[in-house]
């Protein structure tokens, strides 16, 4: 029996990378998955691949920077599968205009926060309402190791991800009475669509490999396994935590 048998899980950002790997893993573990993404082509492809291999999944197009889309994702989950047990707030961006603080634009800050913070909060707003009605649930927010370690020239992104980790604690306290656990996963460098530009920067990648105790760096599946743990009943005593999955980057 799968570790998520009987559960309904809503995951944002399933079109690529870590979100895609997590959707696949959750489905393999028996969850019925509602996968959301603003990219309808890649998001629907992830869901189609799950259904083609014996899993159960539904795609919903959503831009999480819009409150109405966050509300609709939860509605689709409940209308399709009758409930919502797990919410994984994964979708997020590294803004192309993020950079040195002396050059940082309002656009980079606003667009980063609109997705990485506001989108997460609105999704929890509607997801938690449903979980409260049901009497419990598990929420996993995607933070970053940059909430714990300084890396120059990623100021808007780091600010947004530090906020995710901070508010995870607040939400854990606020929702505990409803038996809703809230945790964060904090990945280190993980090969995905988000960092293709960085992957092409040889000097940056060489430095990353020196900075990590696991020089292979991360694959989406490595992070998905941590999300699975936090979302599953095996983590029933874990709430308000931030699980760092970073090949030893932050402790070095
Ligand atoms: N890859 C890393 O090294 C790394 C490290 C730490 C944290 N993260 C976090 O992981 C998440 C990104 O995942 P990834 O690395 O697999 O990247 P990715 O770019 O491969 O996937 C992100 C997915 O989210 C979707 N998305 C972006 N904005 C959206 C929006 N407004 N509404 C709905 N969907 C949206 C994209 O279309 C894409 O499918 C972010 O939250 C990021 O902060 C990644």
Describe this structure in words.
Helix 1 runs parallel beside helix 2 (40-52). The protein has 252 residues and is α/β, with parallel strands linked by helices. The protein has helices at 17-28, 40-52, 67-81, 106-134, 155-175, 196-199, 202-211, 220-231; strands at 8-12, 32-37, 56-61, 86-89, 137-142, 180-187, 242-245. Strand 2, helix 2 and strand 3 (56-61) form a beta-alpha-beta unit. The mean pLDDT is 98. It is globular and about 50 Å long. The protein has a seven-stranded parallel sheet, with helices on both faces. The protein has a single domain, classed as Rossmann fold. It is built from eight helices and seven strands. Nicotinamide-adenine-dinucleotide (NAD) binds next to helix 1 and helix 4.
Going by CATH, the architecture would be 3-Layer(aba) Sandwich
Q: Tell me the number of helical segments per DSSP (H or I, 4 or more residues long).
A: 8
- What is the chain-wise order of helices and strands? EHEHEHEHEHEHHHE
CATH fold field value: Rossmann fold
What gross morphology would you assign? globular
């Amino acid at each position: 029996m799968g570790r998520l048998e009987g559960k309904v899980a809503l995951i944002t950002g399933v079109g690529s990378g870590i979100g895609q790997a997590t959707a696949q893993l959750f489905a393999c573990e028996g969850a019925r998955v509602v996968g959301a993404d603003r990219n309808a082509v890649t998001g629907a492809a992830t869901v189609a691949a799950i259904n083609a291999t014996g899993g159960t999944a539904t795609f919903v197009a959503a831009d999480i920077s819009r409150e109405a889309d966050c509300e609709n994702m939860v509605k689709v989950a409940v209308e399709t599968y009758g409930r919502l047990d797990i919410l994984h707030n994964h979708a997020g961006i590294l803004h192309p205009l993020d950079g040195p603080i002396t050059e940082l634009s309002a656009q980079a800050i606003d667009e980063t926060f609109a997705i990485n913070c506001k989108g997460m909060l609105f999704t929890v707003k509607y997801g938690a309402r449903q979980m409260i009605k049901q009497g419990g649930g598990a929420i996993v927010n995607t933070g970053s190791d940059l909430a714990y370690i300084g890396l120059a020239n990623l100021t808007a992104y780091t600010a947004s991800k530090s906020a995710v980790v901070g508010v995870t604690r607040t939400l854990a306290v606020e929702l505990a009475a409803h038996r809703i656990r809230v945790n964060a996963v904090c990945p280190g460098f993980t090969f995905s669509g988000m960092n293709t530009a960085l992957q092409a920067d040889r000097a940056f990648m060489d430095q990353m490999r020196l900075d990590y105790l696991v020089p292979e760096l991360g694959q989406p599946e490595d992070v998905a396994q941590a999300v699975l743990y936090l979302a599953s009943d095996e983590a029933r005593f874990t709430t308000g935590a931030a699980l760092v999955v970073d090949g030893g980057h932050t402790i070095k």
